[in-house]
């Protein structure tokens, strides 16, 4: 998708592009829970078990339509190993929605969700939409975390919850759509509030902050 | 033979000619027209065998033998090829000879021929020499072979994670589709993690080891990897992989600066689209391009890395960006990402030399001084940032501590108030006991008074007066209580206000955390801290005031009321008891007077009998029975005396019998006291 580039105002870019909104989503969770597979299932609707480990950061684009609005989802995929947080947390701030992924066949990945939530609290924008995603729900024989446990954790932290499987595709679309809808609702209510304020309504589609934050390059 | 003085540029020019035919495998015969250089080959085999012998003296590696054999076979194959391709030149054999010579004592060679080394390596190592060359170039210590098997018998915390990544490292490569291949990769990663627990395993490193394993045996790959990780060498991959990954952002910043220096236009475009070096170049550094390019090109880059260190990553990265500059400039974020990750690497896969040549073309300059300057720049900026973050973290911690202190002070305050109440209650109970004792004394005195002749009415009147006084007192106390309660309510209101203020401050603090403007954030943090300490002071004052109030008014009045109520109840019970006692006394008095009446009647009748007997005696004055009647008279007189005596004795026991009635009253008041306490 190579659209007309150049540094025009956000409004004119939006006008030229084939979508109404651009939302940035972020996938986080322990290494091996299936973040990349979920994203691949969502973007390509297929399953590839021979992915290479995500080194650092990556992203994919998928455009969806919700309530007559075309929404371009820019989904950032992150390395799950803890030490990569040095790099990945810089991408939290620009995210409008964060999908926290764990693996129902691994207790540790479930327990670590609390740590990932702490990371969100520390690095993400306030009020960022969050969704707890339990992956690999097709592997019933290996399951160690029940749906109730997941639900309970989500309720405890006041966030939404969904179980899905990147392998079968079950609920994957639903997870991303649900997140997109939530971000859209929040975005539109914010927009109308701005309009009500009498201020000039500008469709600022992405967070102006650099994904890198202050730590790199952009300071000089 | 190459002249030692030949420049890199000349070398590159020559290399281009050589690679013109397509796939430039250095092992391929490309000699032009010269007669079969079998002498060269023989010499080379001799040298290799010498090298092998030399190696065997330091390690008993069968692999070395295998390599030599492999090389012999290859040379034989080349001979056959040569017959098919008559046009050849001596370059390949020259190269082999040079490399053979160089590898015999690489440190010495590289020192003596420092200018020759780079052009040599840019051409790529001859394939069969590569395993040996990587060991020599890196200076790997093959004595680690022994340690390797030891390390494999130990366990590492990282094993699970390594296992999870093995199948995700070169999944398309035949070697790693096979269990023995993945096991080798697992072994090397695990052995390193055991040996260097601080670094353990870092995602990305398996691609480098995988690339080593595609070219050399497991034990050698381990030794080479250890060397690449070592800080003592110029490679220092370890710094990049350590938890915290502190080196990576430095490299990314340097790359960003280099992009800006080489093509400001591209830099601006990247910045406008938030296409940062960390987004597209993290894996360049973390896998030395092994996860980016095709195998052939990755191996060539690794060859150069052994000589150049991370400089080659910057050069190759810049070459990729600058070659595809126009395409990058015409794309948005998604397009650029795909260009950097897929289309670009695919484009260069056609010809590995193209990218290598671009990377070392004069257009790309990497100044060591500038790199050092940028490193310093970045590190001081990070230090500052860390310090600021540290201050914010410190302020947050301080805030938490203060909040905890408020909580503990509140708790302390509560316990103090509780203690105070208990003490007051104890005092009240003691006072109540005193009053009760006083009352008992009064009662006892009253009894004594009555016994000594006071009338029941008087006692009753006195009791009534007592009750009246108590009721008035209770009323007064109740009014006082209402006042005290009002004061308490006010105090609670103050406390509530203080709490609200604290809440507001806490909310401010929370906002502060979110603030991107660090300076503002710090200022606000300081302000709010000040406010908070003020609030705490205020709260403390309030607590003090409250404590005082509570001790003086609320608590004392509460306990006083309790005491008064129980006193009033006690007084009422006392009154009832007194009334009952009076009733009992009246009843017993009635009984006594009845008995007295009876006794007086008996005395009367006895006196009458005595009188009649006297009359009889008079009548029978002269009779003989005079003596008898006299005796009878005396007897009846004695009986009278006895009765009179009994009258006096009966009154006393009856009266003294009343006294124990007050004793149960005491016991009951004890009970009352207990009730009051409860």
TrEMBL record, chain A:
Cellular localisation: Cell membrane; Cytoplasmic vesicle membrane
One Pfam family per UniProt: Ras
Membrane topology: Lipid-anchor
Any GO CC annotation of this UniProt entry: cytoplasmic vesicle membrane
Record CDD domains: Rab8_Rab10_Rab13_like (cd01867)
Biological process annotations from GO: protein transport
UniProt entry tagged with the keyword Protein transport: yes
Disordered: annotated segments: 187-220
Basic and acidic residues bias spans: 187-200
Family matches, as SMART domains: ARF (SM00177), RAB (SM00175), RAN (SM00176), RAS (SM00173), RHO (SM00174)
Domain of life of the native organism: Eukaryota
Family membership: Belongs to the small GTPase superfamily. Rab family.
Descriptive protein name: Ras-related protein Rab-13
UniProtKB/TrEMBL annotation, chain B:
Keywords: Coiled coil, GTPase activation
Region annotation Disordered: where it falls in the sequence: 1-41
PROSITE patterns: TBC_RABGAP
Superkingdom of the organism of origin: Eukaryota
InterPro entries xrefs: Rab-GAP-TBC_dom, Rab-GAP_TBC_sf, Rab_GAP_TBC_domain
Biased composition (Polar residues): 18-37
GO molecular-function terms, A-Z: GTPase activator activity; small GTPase binding
Signal sequence range: none
Chain ranges of the Rab-GAP TBC domain: 124-309
Coiled coil: 392-419, 481-542, 575-646
PANTHER family per UniProt: RAB GTPASE-ACTIVATING PROTEIN 1-LIKE, RAB-GAP TBC DOMAIN-CONTAINING PROTEIN
Name listed for the protein in its UniProt record: Rab-GAP TBC domain-containing protein
Organism listed in the record: Oikopleura dioica
